Amino acid sequence: GRVGLRKGDIVTHCNGEEVQTLAEFQQQVSWASGDPAWITVNADTETASVLQKRAIRMATEKVRFH
Fold this sequence. Notes:
66 residues
């Protein structure tokens, strides 16, 4: 929720690796060990817009979510 994801959004990749299950996603995130985890999401248009704006803000303001 803090990064703009909503129920029903589908995470397809994490750190450049395809994920098909929750366990695969959790494994990719745990490997990041405190570093940012980059995710690709199949989301509705409104959510995609929010995520794009948030990514731009994070890049320009160096915001990190934990």
